[in-house]
Amino acid sequence: MARHPTWTEIKIAQFIKEGRGKGAGPNYSAWVQVPDFSSKGDSRRVFSRKTGRVHHLMSTVEWWLFLLLEFSEDVVDIREQFPISRDDTQQIAVELGVKHPRYPGTDVPTVMTVDFFVVRQLHGVRRVELYDCKRTDDAEDVRALEKLEIIRRYAEGVGIPHHLVFSSELPQNRVRNLEWIRTADAGQDESEEQVDYFAQHQARLLNNLANFQRTWSLAHYCEHYDSLVGAIPGTGLRVVRQLLLSHQLTTDLNQPDLAASPIAMFKPRGDNRLRLAVGG
To answer: Which residues, 6 or more positions from 18, have their beta carbon under 8 angstroms from its beta carbon?
Structure first.
């Protein structure tokens, strides 16, 4: 069972002093972080090249939504576990006639957080959005909905769009494909076979694919590519996933099995841009 930190006003003041909930991009620090708990079920720490830092995700649903947001090209910053002023949330709770949440076993009012504070930039215009994501079962939880209503009223008051996303609304094939694609990224500590090994194969495979005419599956094509250029087995499939991750290659990510999909469905980047299923 997860051990929660002992929440006191001193603890909260310490977090504020540490800069929790402050900063942007690689300098943002989530209000609550995975190490704050002795165990937290399906929580995870995930490095993102987009933001240049490790993200602290507290549930599988957060991880799924994070994958979709990170892949969206117009998303330029993602700040998870983003805190909201207790003065504001306590006042809203009074206005709603509901109890403000308190930390378990204490009389200390909770510093409420939104799952994701997201910055988008489209056609030179930046906009901010707030996202909360919950299991579909939470739609039946009156208390959970009361807390979400406090957040929604706060967002409405400051003029920031707030999106509540339930797990059943997330496109599962796309999420699974993004998980698979993401694992192809060359890790920070990974040493390549030679300098720019993957970059060279990315350019070579894109050129080869643009002129490829056969009706093969992606997996069959990648095996052929490895044999054709004398690459380590598995290189082609990994490079395709890297190209999808960097948007140099496009396809329908809602397919149930990318590896088994026809190679004709994978196109070098052109004018057609795939859109994120959640949030644009």
So the answer is: 29
| Torsion angle in degrees (nearest 10) through CA of 39, 40, 41, 42 | -120
d(CA 29, CA 53) in angstroms, rounded, equals 9
Does the domain at 173-268 match CATH 1.10.10.10? Answer given as yes
Pick from 259, 247, 252: which is nearest to 277 by CA?
A: 252
* pTM metric for this prediction: 0.90
What pLDDT digit, counting tens, does each position of 136-154 carry? 988 888 999 999 999 999 9
From the candidate CATH numbers 3.40.1350.10, 3.30.930.10, 3.30.420.10, 2.30.30.100, the one assigned to the domain spanning 9-170: 3.40.1350.10
Name the residue with tokens 């799924």.
64
Please, what is the Cα angle at 34 between 184 and 163, to 5 degrees?
Answer: 75
Q: Give the span between the Cα atoms of 247 and 271, in whole angstroms.
A: 12
DSSP-H helix ranges across 19-77: 60-71
**Structure token digits, residue 118:** 């997201």
- CA 59, 62, 67, 68 torsion-angle sign: positive
